[in-house]
Every structure is written in C-alpha cells, then in structure tokens.
Amino acid sequence: MNTCERLSESFSDYIENILPAAERQQVETHLSACHDCHDTVARLNHLRNQLSRLRPVRTSDDFTAVLRARIKLEQRMPRAGRLVGARYRRIRTAGYAGAALMLAIFLGYLVWRPQTPIAAASNLRSYQTQGATVTGWQADPSKFPARISYPLDKITPTHPIRSASAPRGQAPAGGAAADSSRIGVISTARPVRATFISSF
Amino acid sequence: MEESPKRNEVKPTDEDLIERFQQGELAAYEEIVRRYKDQLLNFVFRFLNNHEEAEDVVQETFLRVYRNRFAYTRIAKFSTWIYTIAGNLARTELRRRKRRRFFSLSDMGLEDRDYEISDEVFNPETQANSTLGEELIQREISKLSPKFREVIILRDVQELSYEEISKIIRVPIGTVKSRVNRARLRLQNRLKKLLDQRK
C-alpha cells in the first residue's frame, strides 16, 4: 500500500477535524507534496458540504391522515393495517394477476380441449324427437346410459351431424353407417333405429 | 406579573414522549410522528431513491412504533430506535425491489435506468461548471452498495454522530468510520469522472 492509499483512509477524519494531531500533521505534509491527494481532499470537503445541503424532501399532505386511518384499521382488525400501502397494492395486483391467469387457463381449456370420445359425441347436442328436444349429453355424461336407442324416423337433427372420424364442421358422407360402431353416429341407411353408443 | 404557562413549558424529549405514549397518551405519539416524519423520509428517500416507496416505509415505521411501543426501553435513545426500525424496513424494501426486478425486467426504477442515459447526465444550461446537480448526487448515492449508502446518508445528510450510526446499524464505530470514508471516496470518484466527461 503506497502512502496515498494509506493516508486516504484518514481523509474523512481529516476533513471532519477529528484526526489526532500527529496524524493530522502527517496528512498535511503529504497533501502539500501530493497534488492528487490535495485535490481529492478538496473534493471530499466540497461533497460533504453538498450532501449536508441537499434539499429536504417532505411527506405528502395526507401522510398523517393516512397513518391515522391505518392505526384505526389496526385497532379494529389487528392484522389488517399491515396490508395497507405498498404491500397491500402488491398483494392486490398479485391477486388480480392470479385470477386472470386462472381465467386464461380455463378459457384455453375450453378452446383447445382434446377431442375425447365425449367431446366428439358432444357434436350431437340437440335433437328433436316429436316436438321434444333431447339435450344434455355433455352436461352430465354420467347420467347418460351406456346404450340408448331411439326410433330414427322420429329424430330430426337440428344441426349438421358428423362422424367422429370426419373433420370438424363436416357432415358425414353417405356412408355414415360404416362408422356406426364408433360413437355419436346416426345411421340413416336403415330407417329402423338409430343407435347412440356412449363410450362409458 | 405572572408569566404565561407556555413560556415555562420545556419541550419534552423524545424519550418523554414515548413514555407518555406507553401510558396511553395518543397526543404524545402524534408529536413523535410530527417530529420524525420528514426526518425519516429524508433518510429513507435517499436510501431508496423513490418517494412513494419511502413514504410507505416511513408509514410502516410509525405503525411498528405504535404496535411495539412497549418494546422500547429508556436505555436507548429513541431516535436510535426509530432509525433502526426505518433502516431495517428500508433494507427489506430494497431486497423486495431486487426480487421484483428479477421477475419483471420492465419494472425498472430510476436507479436502473441511469445506466442508459449517461450522455444526458449534464445539462450545461442548468448546472454550473463545478456544482453538481442534486439529482445527479442522489443518483450516484443510489448506485453505492447499501452498506455504504446507509452510512453516508446517516452521516452527511442526516448529520448523525458516529456513535449513533454505530448503534443504528449495529456495527463498531471503527467500521462505521471506515465505511463512511470509503463511501465518500467512491462517491467523490464517480462524481469526478462525470465532471471530467462533461469537460
């Protein structure tokens, strides 16, 4: 450690006039010979003056009112007061973000859910049977019996029917009966019975 | 002629006030708040470099004083006690801010943005040659590490004694002096570099 480095450890005490006389003399002797250290001490002195003169900041006008409100809240609900202020805002923001994330996941599931047999069957959502509407396949599939038969001549589809293997939005071609072993298919080839086979 | 009672009234010390507050006098607490709110805000603001966060920390400090009023005993100076609470909360806030910054890069404070605007540091029209702007000094303070930042604020801005700083941050006086010296040298070096760039 050279003299400059060693003596620089005493510069603060020197500018604050709290250095013992012997050390002070040593520093002053060095400062008279070393321009860089002399300059550094002058700057330190200037900096110290500037720091002590920094404009004070003031609390906002409602500071005391907010504090009183927090104390009142604290008195009524001992832990509630701790949630006011920045922490409360952060917790609230985190809550909103969590709720939004859950909603996004739920919506994502609704849009991109996999085409399970049940989902495929849900294409047959509603049929008119002599004035009555048969609905609710996916509303409560557990209540749906394993095998249901309806007389086909009494069933009128209210929207296009497609087979499980056909692309979404397309009604099956004439040979829909070929797929009748799969789910959700109404055979129109034989006007006797339509067989809906659930996968349960 | 009788002197007005107010003239004879001696201003109660902080320790008297907290004692009265411990006995249930809410007005004494309000007087403590009045005495310390700006003082603490100056300390915390210089430390965090954010007014809103600093106010929250000062509010929390007074709430802690309210809650833990019976934890104070007269063996310590009240100012040391309240500065210790504020300092601890400010450091906690700084750690929280770092965590938040880790998760959100967009949540950058002034202290972070400073690195991007080095060319706009000086405005010759508003700053005299040798006088550094307050904002610049504040910004350079906030770039110091927390342990240096804390002592230089307490010593040079708040003008507390080394002994009191030593009690507040719970390190020996020699360490405080050494930190103050190093903090001043670092700050001075950075400001000198900025001034040299400006020339």
Can you put this structure into words, describing what you see?
The complex is a heterodimer of chains A (200) and B (199). Chain A is mainly alpha-helical and 200 residues long. Chain A has helices at 3-8, 11-15, 21-33, 35-52, 63-76, 86-112, 117-121, and strands at 127-129, 132-134, 147-150, 155-157, 194-197. A three-stranded antiparallel beta sheet of chain A has the order 2-1-4, with no helix packed on it. A two-stranded antiparallel ribbon of chain A has the order 3-5. Chain B contains ten helices and no strands. Chain B is mainly α. Classes of the chains: A mainly alpha (200), B mainly alpha (199). The A-B interface holds A 8-13, 40, 43-44, 47-48, 50-52, 54-60, 63-64, 66-67, 70-71, 74, 81-82, 85-87 and B 30, 33-34, 37-38, 41-42, 45-46, 51-56, 58-60, 62-63, 66-67, 93, 131-132, 134, 137-138, 152, 156-157, 159, 177-178, 180-181, 184-185, 187-188, 191-192.
Indicate the topology.
The complex is a heterodimer of chains A (200) and B (199).
Chain A: H1 3-8, H2 11-15, H3 21-33, H4 35-52, H5 63-76, H6 86-112, H7 117-121, E1 127-129, E2 132-134, E3 147-150, E4 155-157, E5 194-197
Helix pairs in contact in A: 3-4
Chain B: H1 5-8, H2 14-22, H3 26-48, H4 51-67, H5 78-103, H6 110-113, H7 134-143, H8 146-157, H9 162-169, H10 173-198
